[in-house]
User: What shape does this take?
Amino acid sequence: MTILLIGAQKGGVGKSTVAASMAVKLAHMNKDVCIVDADKQQSLSKWHQYRSEIDDIPRVNCVSATGNITATLKDLNERYDVLVVDVAGRDSIEMRSAMIIADVLISPLRPSQADLDTVPHLLEMFEQASIMNPKLKGFLVQNMCPTLPSVKDADKAAEVLEDTELMNLSEIRLCDRKGHRDGFGYGYGVEEWQKETGKISDAKAAEEISWLISEVLGNA
Assistant: This one.
């Protein structure tokens, strides 16, 4: 049983699309997956409604929870292979209570100064949670990175983050590919969306998600 928490200290970093594509990929790996939508915007719950109308795709369960969600996660963790928990992009009771029980915190951030400025507070939260949950692992994941090699924003951000203590800087960078957003809007994961479109860019997006899951589960 594994609990993957997708959380950040800033909105607009693509948490929900990452959570959805990771959950779908895990379902295609024959895992019994449940998404816990603990963000009051309920983006993943809406995504799940769209997904329920699609035939011949793996089942991904979804429940909503707010407030102190520790007990809810404990209960669900006994019934599913993997929980993918999405919390709001800020310091919240949902995020703090989930960190107490999660196995891995995956924190997407864009390669921008505004996002880098949120990392110290995130690390403080992570350190506090680790006292109660020593097994908790953490990954900072650069998301929505520029696809043009000439744009070095992600390289510059990596230089700032490479010596970060407590949480690991993921070796995987998720690029700003349209397939993530388009697939999410119809209830798909990006891997499934690539099969619908046949686009090379969507295949690359799906590959990045696969690599991220391999890295995270390999270190969980």
User: Anything to note?
Assistant: The mean pLDDT is 94. Residues 200-219 form the longest helix (20 residues). The beta strands are 2-8, 33-38, 61-64, 82-89, 104-109, 137-142, 168-169.
